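User: Okay, second chain of the day. Same drill as before: sequence in, structure tokens out.
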Amino acid sequence: MAQLRIALAQVNPTVGDLEGNRSLVVEAARRAAEEGAHIVALPEMVVTGYPVEDLALRNSFVSASIRATRELAAELDRAGLGDLPVVVGHLSRREGAAPTGFAPHGGLPAGAPQNAVAVLHRGRSVLSSAKYHLPNYGVFDEFRNFVPGDTLPVLRVHGVDVALVVCEDLWREAGPVTAARAARVDLVVSLNGSPYERHKDDVRLELCQRRARETGAALAYVNMVGGQDDLVFEGDSLVVDADGELLARAPQFDETLLVADLDLPDRSDAGVPDGAEVDGLRVVRRTLSGAPVTPYPARENTVTPRPDPLSDTGEVYHALVLGLRDYVAKNGFASVLVAVSGGIDSALVATIAVDALGADRVHGLLLPSAHSSGHSVSDAEELAKRQGFATRTVPIASMVTAFERASADAGAPLGGLAAENLQARVRGTLLMSLSNQEGHLVLATSNKSESATGYSTLYGDSVGGFAPIKDCWKTLVWDLARWRNAEAERRGQIPPVPENSITKPPSAELRPDQLDSDSLPDYDLLDAVLDAYIGTDKGEAELVFAGYDPELVRRVIRLVDRAEYKRRQSAPGTKISSRNLSRDRRLPITNRWTV
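Assistant: Same drill. Structure tokens below.
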């Protein structure tokens, strides 16, 4: 048996912060060396951050990434870490490609950028390759941004053959997986920028186990952690053996170094030679150290468990906290501002914000109108008291009256929906004014059910720079609040969300005695229809066949389709589902197809 100690550095890079990201790599390599690792791997495009989107089309950015990777190799060597192979993802350029301009044909992106992997050793890059499968679905536009690679790199480290692949290369059966099997490698290392989705951790583990069995090799999967705009990466790096048995697993939502000791079988068949072509890829072999390591006592590998309290709902909650925390930190905001109404949506958003940033960086604004109930103010005040964040109360009735008079003077007296929406827009104006004056990031409190059906006022309650629960159905909002309260009770703490905010019937309180149920179906039913229509693209006939009332189906479809223009103008928010209402789902605003 051949032994190898591998370190997987689950780090949190920032897009465009090449200097800061380089520091992350150096620190991870230093810790890996202290742990006695023989090789350390970091996530996909760790040098630049991920995803870079159309930054890949800027030649200056590609050149800066290439230069930063070269300087990183030298910096590692100067730090005394040159003997440790460090595997990093970075933005590169196809060798021989013109540095400027578009290809005259073939639809190649400008400058032929590549989502690349490099092995840094003794002051230089000794082996490089690029991602072969470029995803072009959901949130991914990599076929637009990158040119695919055409090699499978195989690195020999202490007599162990290690194949390197990048994210999507593992999710598809052809290409790198086939080539790794033909190369008879001992270990496959996959570099990933795999965004969080609900239930994805189970799918990820099953995928790694299946690919390990298919290639006949152990598999190490390193994923980044942290928030990037509307994406959040949960880490969940792991190692399985050639039979698919889980050997080591990192925690979710935390930066960490996962170190695993591997016992790998001795190979009698070296597989296809250097330069051989397999399934469209050329196998490229490089030897760093041919002799196996001297046998050493292996340490017990760590498998971070996934039991309660980190349940499925808890996972979502942690993802929302991390997504907000990093959006605030990486964009340089010192504080956030939330309009707290006493309702469940604003209560959950404020709670997420306090958990992400601390109560001293969360500011609440109570904006009661003539139609606000007494419990609207008292529940909001109780929320702030339980969590310790500061609030201000600014009644808006007089401002609404002033706007109504001005509109009447202009010959257009307001009534009905226009008058209701005015209240929300006055609130939105106050929120954004305080944001401009005091530098807070305004958090929008709309949930996915409201966004889907258009039940939010444009330039009113939809205003904000970030929408933490944008991808959460209303029913999930309640589940998250209940989970957070239960978690507080488990820890012996006061539940942060007042019970009345959870149990009272939801209402926008824009007219006397208004309830959401006046104009929307029960949320359990509504969310089920919405999830089928949006999440799986079922049309009217399919929804009716599934048992939903035809009139309800037609009404929901009409609401969703008519609100597309609102969603185009909404703030970004953390993606937690397999299909959110922004990059995952792109439909025309002008659209007469209704079935």
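Residues 236 and 512 are 49 Å apart (CA to CA).

User: Thanks, on to the next one.
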